[in-house]
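Cross-check.
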Amino acid sequence: MELFTKNGYTARFVGGVVRNALLGEPVHDLDMATDALPQTVMELAQKAGFKAIGTGLEHGTVTVVIGDKVYEITTLRVDVETDGRHARVAFTKDWLTDAARRDFTINALYVGADGVVFDPLAGYEDLLARRGRFIGDPDERIKEDHLRILRFFRFSAQYGDGSVDQAGLAACVLLQQGLKTLSAERISAELMRLLLMPRAMEVLDTMFAHGLLLPLANRVAHPSRLRKWLALERQLKQMPSALDRLGALFMLTDTDAAMLAHKLRLSNQQKSRLKLWVPNPEISKSLKEKQARVLFYQLAGDYPLSLAINWLLSRDGPEDPAWCKLYDLPTRWQRPLFPLSGQDLLDAGMSPGPLVGKKLRKLEQAWIESDFASGRAELLRQLDA
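Predicted model, tokenized:
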């Protein structure tokens, strides 16, 4: 800030860094606004010995790196032309004009070197009231960038009280066709972030009631199932997972994983995890301890999720003692390693070939049926059986 002021310019922090600081939450992105032109920002930073990168000069953005801190510094601007995804901008020296082009009031908060918050659009009042509100006409803000539909709901779930601004909601419903212009990657990123927000359930209920979930995934949503999954998360002390919450919300059949992965451009690893969101017919709360150990051995690290999914799809509540006991199996029983390998069978005299694998699988099955009690020597004695 001193670099700008001593050269006759003004720079202020803006947006998330101010919003989160006011809320006492962690600050991540260090965004700043200035009345200096982009090329001037580049020159000032370089003369001061800082690394300056013209990351978006046509939009007024320069990245300045000072030590381990990265600052995104953008010249005050106004949108001249927008098409729902991109904007052509002109630079200005008017701070109110710059504020008016932003998306939500809580993102139009600035703070200068004196520590005084510059709040031209009553964003601080909305922040204190836990209210996500578009700046100006919600219709116009959405037409400028259709991603703001999803950002509106995500911000309402992250910073709001679970309710949504009614004028903003009406605009989102009216202009929902704009979601079709967004890339799958942008939709996926916003949806995954929304699923992890503190008041995601209340906001998703609102989106579902107004038909705004179906176009995101091309699947029918099941909010009541997600609500139960969130209760299970709390009961089981699970780390929240956006992908698992996505599965709870949308997965129903074994074909849904591939369709969701395609629609949301998920990775192969994410697709594989979603495939677990199909009920396993071998899992029920009536499993005996020995049967549960066999399943844990077979499923390995997938056991907790597979069990939780079947629990979710049952009629039993999150505190059901039988399900709780089955889920806790990995805490009281260590999954054993099969004591034989193919080399052991070759060393015992078997000839190389497909029969080695077949015999190994047969011995493993016998070991499982013994409740994993048979030792290596005992298994090798069964070679000729």
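The domain at 1-129 is CATH 3.30.460.10 (Beta Polymerase; domain 2). The chain is about 50% helix and 10% strand. Passed to J.P. for a second look.
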